[in-house]
Amino acid sequence: MFKNIKAPSLNTALKASTVAGLAAAVFATGIPLEITRSYAEAVKVQAPSVPSFANVVDAVSPAVVSVRVENRVNPVADDEGNGFAFDFNGRGFDDLPDALKPFFRQFGEQGPQGQQGRRGPQGHHGPQDGKGRLRPVAQGSGFFISEDGYIVTNNHVVSDGAAFVAVMNDGTELDAKLIGKDPRTDLAVLKVDGKGRKFTYVNWADDNGVRVGDWVVAVGNPFGLGGTVTAGIVSARGRDIGSGPYDDYLQVDAAVNRGNSGGPTFNLSGEVVGINTAIFSPSGGNVGIAFAIPASTAKDVVADLMKDGQVSRGYLGVQIQPVTKDIADSLGLSEASGALVVSAQAGTPGEKAGMKAGDVVTAVNGETVKDARDLSRRIGAMTPGKKVELSVWRAGKAQSLTVELGTLPAEQKDASADDGDQAPESQAPASEKALADLGLTVGPSEDGKGLQITGIDPDSDAADKGIKEGEKITSVNNQEVSNADDVVKVLNQAKKDGRTRALFQIQSKEGSRFVALPINGQG
């Protein structure tokens, strides 16, 4: 029988060994030992070298301003559109208890165009007069583009303002006057009087060299905070967000919010590559999708505004639409590019030069036209009165036209056209002959021009392309048609020419458009 013996723990053994060793050392030397504790070093990681934006921010910040917009507000019904009058027995917002001000700021101070208005201690009120008093209604951002005080911002920031204040990064407030604005590109120019002061200003970048993935820095006034810097990259180029014919935005993922509108986006050289103008946001805040007007667009517009207070644009006077692959096939074009002319308004430069419906503008002064938006931008950027050479594709052949540009009317849409012949509300008697392979049933129109569409096969390509009963077919492959036999004749010729699609010009109440339909099997 073995006896169970409990062994000493390792910790106890080590302690005993250490004490014994120390005792032996003391007895051997006769010198007392100094006992010290040792500690491990703090964690320190050698981080990889990454770019810092501090130098850029230090250089450009003095050139960026907050733009406060003021308007005349009825003193009795101030802010009634927001649901709060801010008039409590003769007292205004400034007179409210401090505890209540955040509540009313949150729920009652959304200014026009999504900008958040500022009142209270940061704002100031103009003198009372018969038309009401000046009160801040919106705010945004801007930046100096010259040492003598010209400021660039967005049109939608200043559009509803009667007076403007530029707040510099050091807190200095300067009254500004509106020099000019351009709604089509959402740009505006203000001017402050520095009384001889020279302002720090920034230059435009060559945004042709901007690449997707490049670092950018946005500086502005989000939510009235002022002097806020965010960074990100260029996410995409050439974005069309449906705001107008000159859409060609840079998309960036730097945090941009309400109040950043009109503020600059810089490259790492401190040059302006774009002007923040819009965000995509289901929530109303930043989700990483912001759009900036490219420097190449802004540069020329701003120069015109500084010079004349307005922008004069070249004008053709034609309605255009994109060239799809189907339309390109129907016209015998090798690729889907250029701008398709839907109609030329009578008396306009385009009509005088001989432009016709069905023409495809493929180049301007020898430079290829990518699409309809590209043509609008090119013509709009030119000086009225200038002669330009247009390369057009007509009836399967390339031709050249010389056009002397007119001046775009101030209130006219860039791609507008006459309403033309409207489709009658009542359907014309149905024709005996149906273009069954196309899914169309047609009959004569009441005015004798073109063919009335009296029936649509819901499973046809025509229905898929949006053609509807009540609309008219005015031409096929740029040849006018007045009956179903005319249509079939044109389609048969197209098949002989090796075409697989035909180009139908459709007239509706909304205007005229081209639709390419397949013609295989049509006889």
Give a short overview.
The protein contains ten helices and 27 strands. By secondary structure, it is of the alpha+beta class. A hairpin with a 7-residue loop joins strand 7 (215-220) and strand 8 (228-239).
Describe this structure in words.
Strands 21, 22, 23, 24, 25, 26 and 27 form a 7-stranded antiparallel beta sheet that branches. A 6-stranded antiparallel barrel has the order 1-2-3-6-5-4. A 6-stranded antiparallel barrel has the order 7-8-9-12-11-10. 17% of the residues lie in helices and 30% in strands. The protein has 523 residues and is an alpha+beta fold. The radius of gyration is 35 Å and the shape is elongated. The protein has helices at residues 10-29, 54-60, 101-108, 155-158, 295-308, 325-331, 349-352, 372-380, 461-464, 484-496; strands at 64-73, 133-144, 150-153, 163-167, 173-182, 187-192, 215-220, 228-239, 249-252, 264-266, 272-279, 290-294, 314-315, 318-322, 339-344, 360-364, 367-368, 387-394, 397-404, 406-407, 434-435, 440-444, 451-456, 472-476, 479-480, 501-508, 511-518. It has 3 domains: 53-311, Thrombin, subunit H; 314-407, PDZ domain (Pdz3 Domain, Roll), CATH 2.30.42; 434-518, PDZ domain (Pdz3 Domain, Roll). The chain has 10 helices and 27 strands. Its EC number is 3.4.21.107. Keywords: Hydrolase, Periplasm, Protease, Repeat, Serine protease, Signal, Stress response.
Annotated CATH topology of the largest domain: Thrombin, subunit H
Question: Any idea what the CATH architecture of the largest domain is?
Answer: Beta Barrel
Strand content: 25-35%
Share of helix, binned: 10-25%
Total domain modules: 3
